[in-house]
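Pilot study result, target chain (195 residues):
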Amino acid sequence: MLKIHVLPLGDYQTNCYIVHEENRNACFLIDPGYEPAIIDAYLEEKGLTPEAIALTHCHFDHVGAVKDLVAQYDCKVYLCRKDLAMPPMLTNGPLYYTDTYADGDTMTLAGIPVRVMETPGHTPGSVCLIAGDTMFSGDTLFAGSCGRTDLPCGDAREMRDSLRKLAKLEENYRVCPGHGPSSTLDREKKTNPYL
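Predicted structure:
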């Protein structure tokens, strides 16, 4: 059974997710944007060791703790190559990564299959990551809203296309967004004006 811990961190309360199989110590992190010491202390408290970091996109508030955590745990870092074109002012300097993924890829992170769905709009390389019955939607889809497209490299047309793509999914995923509370895809289809 999938266990998901969420740590809202930093000025933007970016959701850092820690994901692992029940009764396993290996885990992976999604979007560790701030406060690596807090993440490290939480991992130690729970007896968890990250094998990988997966990024839904590369804005500074989602990647800020990556280098410190890699120095501590020597783990792999995955991102969508399309975000490498973003200006450094948006990414907190040069991006650190070991591997890239693209639409349709499936990786095994800490023993858990994770499928990649590219959902550009907020950034060129925004993705949703699907593990079991859960979708980590980054800043593409929020409870009741969607990510902004007015920052450099944002694209409103691509965001509309990405949201249409999500609306066509038949599965009722639990939606774990980059900011704010979780939801379900069915609930968002019924109540989210952007979806």
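One observation from the pilot: Helices lie at 36-46, 60-63, 66-73, 88-91, 156-167, 185-191. A full batch analysis is planned for the follow-on phase.
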